Structures are given as C-alpha cells and as structure tokens.
C-alpha cells in the first residue's frame, strides 16, 4: 500500500458512491487503516476497504482470491489485546478494526543443490537448523490464514519426515504471517518449500495416469476444447471457471 493517499476518486472516504443519486445507501463502519480512521462499507474485505478509502495497493495484492499470499495483514479489534492475522482479500472488515498490511516478511532462504541433498533430517539440520529452536507454542498455527497445522509440519521437519512436511504445508501461500509471529524466528514457509522440492525429487510416486494424459495432449485430444475456450468471452469464461469442480 502506498504511504500517500492516491488522488481522490468517487470512492474516497470524502466522496462516496452512496452519496450519489440513484446509488443505494451502503452501511458504513469506521476502521483505522495505518492509524487513520476511514468510513468504509460494512460488507467490504480489508482489501476492498483500503481501496475504497483511496489508497492504491501497489505491493500487497495479487490474485485477490486467497491464493497468492501477497496481502498479509495484521489487525486488532476493539477490546481485544490480541494481534490477529489474515489475508486482506479474504478477511471482512469489522467496526473499530485497526490494521496494517505486511506485504513482505524477510526470511533467509537457504541456497542448496537439490541433487546434493537427501530427503531426510540431515537436509533440515543443514539448511534450516532454526526448526530445532521450536518451543511448540502453536502461535504459527493460530496465525495461519490457510488454517494449516504449521507447528505440526515444523515438528515433522524436526523428525526428518519430509513427506509429512510436504503434505501439511501443501496449501501454504507463503504469506509469511507464521514466521512473523514465531518467537523462535523460524522461517516455516521456506522449510515447507524445501520439503516439497525434496519430495518431488526423491519421494514422489510415478503416475501412469499423468503419462497417459500428457500423451493425449500431445496427440491433440483436447485441441477442440482449447479452441472453444480461447474463443469464449471473458464473462462466459469466468462463469465456467467458477462453476468447475474443484478439490
Ligand atoms: S504456513 Fe505460514 S506462510 Fe504459509 S500460509 Fe500459513 S501463515 Fe502463511
Ligand atoms: S510459532 Fe515457532 S516456536 Fe511456536 S510452534 Fe510455531 S514454529 Fe514452534
Ligand atoms: S491478493 Fe492473493 S491472497 Fe490476497
């Protein structure tokens, strides 16, 4: 988010869409964005509210759908001493919320040659020895907007159970909120990434179905479907995307 406010638009806090004739009145609530109060729609996400207040998000937004992890946010609610964490694109505003975006959490990424590592505890000891500082406080798990069992995958890393680390960290979006809150200053998402690479290199089972599917693609079995998708208008494509079967 930029420090300075972008030029005022019809959506700014002083000139609201709901003030205009013919535009339905919206319920507004007050939140504090980077220490400054703003009236924003009660049904907005944090990201929507930041933009409604006139800020332009330059760093700290990507997919806007909860996948990329770019929009890590910390906030407090009135009367609650706890620092809460969330993704700005997926977390709704609440009256009196006081928030700041955290678009990047620094962490030292280990540099390694995957061919020289083995999928065992030695790789963890050598590349991410910080995991052995874990005090099992579970703060990382409570901070994770993806609902991952972060502490459990750190414990699995300590045991050298690479498959378990891969499995438990699979849906990590690398928002960095767990490592921001960890009292032992562990870089959990980076450990998860290394485990996924080790798993892919050494432990992954061969998939005969994948080979068949690649062969079918190469032989043009899906060319007609691709052509149909490429000819569709954005709205129709979007409708189809959201109606798809997902895991
Ligand atoms: S494990 Fe950490 S970095 Fe990954 S999504 Fe959860 S809080 Fe974010
Ligand atoms: S926050 Fe850090 S110290 Fe606490 S359980 Fe998670 S990894 Fe361990
Ligand atoms: S913008 Fe991608 S997760 Fe929020």
Notes on the protein architecture:
With 247 residues, the protein is of the alpha+beta class. It has three domains: 17-101, Beta-grasp domain (Ubiquitin-like (UB roll), Roll); 114-203, no CATH class; 212-238, no CATH class. The chain is built from ten helices and five strands, in the order E-E-H-E-E-E-H-H-H-H-H-H-H-H-H. Helix 5 (162-168) packs across helix 7 (188-203). The longest helix is centred in the C-terminal third of the chain and has 16 residues, at 188-203. The model is unreliable at 2-18 (pLDDT under 50). FE2/S2 (inorganic) cluster is lined by residues 61-64, 66-71, 87-89, 173.
Please tell me what the overall shape is.
flat
Helix content: 25-40%
Task: Tell how many strands the DSSP assignment holds.
Answer: 5
Q: For the record, give the distance between the C-alpha atoms at the N and C termini, rounded to a whole number.
A: 32 Å
Structural class by helix and strand composition? alpha+beta
In sequence order, what are the helices and strands, one letter per element?
EEHEEEHHHHHHHHH
Bound molecules: iron/sulfur cluster, FE2/S2 (inorganic) cluster
Report the radius of gyration as a whole number of Å: 22 Å
Strands of the widest sheet, in order across it, are 2-1-5-3-4
Low-confidence stretches: 2-18
Mind describing the biggest β-sheet? 5 strands, mixed
The percent range for strand residues is 5-15%
Tally of domains: 3
How many separate helices?
10
Average pLDDT, to the nearest integer? 91
């Amino acid at each position: 988010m930029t420090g300075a406010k972008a030029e005022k638009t019809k959506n700014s806090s002083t000139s609201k869409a709901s003030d205009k004739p013919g535009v339905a009145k919206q319920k507004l609530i007050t939140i504090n964005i980077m220490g400054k109060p703003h009236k924003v729609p009660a049904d907005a996400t944090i990201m929507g509210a930041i933009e409604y207040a006139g800020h332009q998000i330059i760093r700290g937004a990507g997919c806007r759908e909860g996948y990329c992890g770019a929009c890590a946010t910390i906030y407090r609610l009135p009367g609650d001493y706890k620092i809460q964490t969330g993704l700005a694109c997926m977390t709704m505003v609440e009256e009196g919320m006081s928030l700041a975006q955290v678009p990047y959490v620094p962490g030292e990424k280990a540099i390694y040659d995957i061919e020289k590592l083995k999928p065992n505890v030695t790789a963890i000891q050598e590349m991410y020895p910080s995991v052995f500082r874990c005090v099992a406080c579970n703060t990382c798990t409570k901070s994770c907007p993806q609902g991952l069992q972060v502490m459990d995958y750190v414990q699995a890393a300590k045991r050298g159970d690479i498959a378990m680390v891969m499995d438990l960290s699979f849906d990590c979006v690398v928002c960095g909120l767990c490592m921001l809150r960890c009292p032992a200053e562990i870089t959990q998402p980076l450990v998860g990434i290394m485990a996924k690479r080790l798993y892919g290199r050494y432990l992954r089972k061969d998939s005969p179905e994948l080979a068949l599917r690649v062969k079918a693609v190469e032989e043009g079995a899906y060319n007609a479907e691709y052509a149909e998708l490429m000819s569709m208008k954005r709205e129709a494509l979007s409708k189809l995307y959201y109606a798809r079967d997902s895991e």
